[in-house]
Amino acid sequence: MEKRIRIPRLGFQPACKDCAAAGHGPFCGLSPEALAGLDRSKSVGRYPRGQILFQAGARALGVHCVSSGLVKLYRVGAGGREQILRLAGPGDLLGHRAFLGERVHDHDAEAMSDVEVCFLPAEVLTPLVAGAPPLLRTLLRGLAGELAELEGRLLERSQQRMGGRLGAFLLRLAGAAEGAARVELPFSRQELADYLGAAPETVIRGLAGLVKRKLIRLRGRFVEIPDLVRLRAELDDRAA
Amino acid sequence: MEKRIRIPRLGFQPACKDCAAAGHGPFCGLSPEALAGLDRSKSVGRYPRGQILFQAGARALGVHCVSSGLVKLYRVGAGGREQILRLAGPGDLLGHRAFLGERVHDHDAEAMSDVEVCFLPAEVLTPLVAGAPPLLRTLLRGLAGELAELEGRLLERSQQRMGGRLGAFLLRLAGAAEGAARVELPFSRQELADYLGAAPETVIRGLAGLVKRKLIRLRGRFVEIPDLVRLRAELDDRAA
DNA sequence: CGTGGAGTTGACAAAGATCAATACTAGTGG
DNA sequence: CCACTAGTATTGATCTTTGTCAACTCCACG
After folding, report:
1. Measuring from the CA of residue A190 to each C1', which nucleotide is nearest?
2. What is the DSSP letter of A15?
3. Residue of B nearest to A99 (CA)
4. Which of A224, B74, B177, B240 has its CA 20 to 30 Å from the CA of residue A105?
5. Which residues contact A176 (CB under 8 A, 6 or more apart)?
6. Is the pLDDT of residue B211 over 50?
């Protein structure tokens, strides 16, 4: 998001304190010793434009920190279209979410320009995190999870129409149920619309569409899903 | 997100360990002593449906944890329409973002049903966070910031059309500049579309529209904004 | 000069928004 | 127990925005 990429072509290794000095790095508040420690344990990679840094599904082996250039983080939706979730510029972290939260990357990272990226391996970070109070670890995990969910909704919003979004939402409500399910909508129609980002009428028509295709039945505030497997399948097929 | 609200009408104070036992609370991994400590320092509030727990702009005085019922977190867009960002059910935290990150709530919280909500005041939490390694604090702050940004994009996506979203994006690129600005789009048109969640043609037409209204000028990859104030004003006015 | 890829424009189709009318439903007061 | 009313849900008609597909332009590069 910053003005522009200046490749420091003098030093071999960018020093963390330079990133921190720029003011936007994640390590701003750290002591000089801590920064020097980071410098010792990190490695630096240079990647050409177009290079993939990691892909969804891969385990996080550590955390990246962009030194120069821009990296795009994106998810690929059903139709193969990308949703760019975030741009990471100098001082921004990559892969921290997977590392802190859930083990596995849920998006891809690709260099949009030639980039220089520092890498802090798990060996360095794990003890740091392990030593923290459990409450904080829990908070980190929680925030990572919220972020993942929100990114999912952003993807959904741009790449699915109402039917698909509704179906996905109902499946989330149904949770891990098998076979059939009966879920209570915690919402008025207006609120459902506010959640899904649409007009109430559109939501109602979406529901009506699912009913017509016999994927759900409406019983007031309750929704019956006679066949979860079929609903899931229909959603995967096309944007439904 | 869970099945339904059961108000435990026996005990006066819900115990944290009960939340944790349910498996989804944020305090699952904590030791029994730690949980008991939380119980001692927390207070419990009961609110009727429709009650506002906090509003955007208010300082976070601590962190809430839902014990029973459902709370909706939402932002209100320009036209007064709500975008629901998250539903918080039993075991979910509220207001942690503002507390950990930025001081001030950036969304409202309202009880969707009668709710029971525990409150952990800042006095209890601050020392806990203050004692943590700075790196973790930084990570927490970073994640909180990412969430805020993403929520902003979700709101934008549902409540603004292409012109507005483009304008907002350009203003973000321009950053704190005054008067006029000239920003470089770090994207191809296709990538810009992937970022904004639209077809490339729609993006181009959106840009063309802004050009026609003389709010921007296109110079290849660069965009000139002759009058930032005017652009901002137009965006605020209507969904533009 | 071609040639290929990105960018742009136009014509048309589809999804969604908006506005107005109608149907439900739950609560209220006879 | 029956209207009556207010609020919510639903439906229909119509308009706007966006997506899709195809043509065409504009460079950059060989």
Report:
1. D8
2. -
3. B139
4. B74
5. none
6. yes
**The predicted structure's pLDDT at residue A5:** 43
Q: How confident is the model at residue A12, as a pLDDT?
A: 62
Count Cβ atoms below 10 Å from residue A182 Cβ, excluding itself.
13
As a whole number of angstroms, the distance between CA B58 and CA B68 comes to 24
Element of type H or E holding B84: strand B82-88
Looking at the DSSP bridge assignments, the partners of residue B217 are B224
Question: Inter-axis angle of helices A134-159 and A162-174, to 10 degrees?
Answer: 150
Cα Rg for chain A, rounded, in angstroms? 22
Nucleotides of strand C under 7 angstroms from a protein beta carbon: 6-11, 15-20, 25-26
- Chain B residue closest in CA terms to A147: B147
Element (H, E) at A63: strand A62-68
Contact A176, B63 (CB under 8 A): no
Cite the DSSP H helix spans in chain B: 16-21, 32-41, 96-97, 122-130, 134-159, 162-174, 189-196, 200-212, 228-237
Rounded distance, CA B87 to CA B174, Å?
34
User: Are B34 and B15 spatial neighbours (Cβ–Cβ below 8 Å)?
Assistant: no
A66 CB inside 7 Å of strand C? no
Domain B160-239, what architecture? Orthogonal Bundle (1.10)
Residues B75, B85 contacting (CB under 8 angstroms): yes
Give the closest residue to B100 by CA, choosing from B57, B148, B66, B52. B148
Where in chain A are the domains?
A: 16-137, 160-239
Q: Are A221 and A192 in contact (CB under 8 A)?
A: no
At B240, the pLDDT band (50, 70, 90 cuts) reads very low
Q: Determine the 3-state secondary structure of B109 from DSSP.
A: strand
What global pTM score does this model have?
A: 0.90
Question: What is the CATH code for B16-137?
Answer: 2.60.120.10
Tens place of pLDDT per residue across chain A (240 aa): 444 444 444 446 777 777 766 666 667 667 777 777 777 888 999 999 999 999 999 999 999 999 999 999 999 998 889 999 999 999 999 999 999 876 799 999 999 999 999 999 999 888 888 888 888 888 899 999 999 999 999 999 999 999 999 999 999 999 888 899 999 999 999 999 999 999 999 999 999 999 999 999 998 889 999 999 999 998 887 644
Whole-number distance in Å between B107 CA and D5 C1': 35
Residue A227 in 3-state DSSP?
coil
